[in-house]
Specification:
The structure holds two protein chains of two kinds. Chain A is mostly beta strands. Chain A has no helices and eleven strands. Classes of the chains: A mainly beta, B mainly beta.
Chain lengths: 108, 117
């Protein structure tokens, strides 16, 4: 089973700042990694798939990069509505499909 | 637009059974794989089960194998999760999700399942 480790656990930033979230895989997942956003009380939403492709309707301030074992989700200029928990997920080797533990993004 | 309307959650005693439903609309249901994903209270996301577009192939996370069954009715555009021998650790919000290359493209609203005596 591929284990995904996300860091930091919590990120507290001011509006307009750049947010950088990390996801590290226990073995290579090539580019088969996605990012999801879950706002409080809501279902998750797909943001990025295959490491760097934005899903439909996702604002351009969200971008993904990386391959192999190290991946990054960047929010170029944090908006108040971006608060929530962000999860990475791999599909390189399954079952099972696995998620990281999440990074909570807060606004200062 | 894509809609996934879930029903069937509730409170059940340990060892009991429950069936979740997920009614799909706004897309050609019979051509898409579907998944169940759960989230225990205050915890992260855990993939539970997969069914291929035609219902022929199913995969499960080890912790539910032999107890949960994923199925679909492509004539009714509905996905199901039959849960038997429920345990306290199965307590979670359960989401159905439309598959997209083994990612989760659209999600239902979630339905809570509580296993408690």
């Amino acid at each position: 089973e591929i284990v995904l480790t996300q860091s930091p656990a919590t990120l507290s930033l001011s509006p307009g700042e750049r947010a950088t979230l990390s996801c590290r895989a226990s073995q290579s997942v090539s580019s088969f990694l996605a990012w999801y956003q879950q706002k409080p009380g809501q279902a998750p939403r797909l943001l990025i798939y295959d490491a760097s492709n934005r899903a439909a309707g996702i604002p351009a301030r969200f971008s993904g990069s990386g391959s192999g074992t190290d991946f990054t989700l960047t929010i170029s200029s944090l908006e108040p509505e971006d608060v929530g928990v962000y999860y990475c997920q791999q599909r390189r080797n399954w079952p099972p499909l696995t998620f990281g533990g999440g990074t909570k993004v807060e606004i200062k | 637009q894509v809609q996934l309307d879930q029903s069937g959650g509730g409170v059940v005693q340990p060892g009991g059974s429950l069936r979740l439903s997920c009614a799909a609309s706004g897309f050609p249901f019979s051509t898409y794989a579907m998944h169940w994903v759960r989230q225990a209270p205050g915890k992260g996301l855990e993939w539970v089960a997969f069914t291929s577009y035609d219902g022929i192939n199913q995969y499960y996370v080890d912790s539910v194998k032999g107890r949960f069954t994923i199925s679909r009715d492509n004539l009714k555009n509905t996905l199901y999760l039959e849960m038997d021998s429920l345990r306290a650790e199965d307590t979670a919000i359960y989401y159905c999700a439309k598959g997209f290359a083994e990612y989760f493209q659209h999600w239902g609203q979630g339905t809570p399942v509580t296993v408690s005596s």
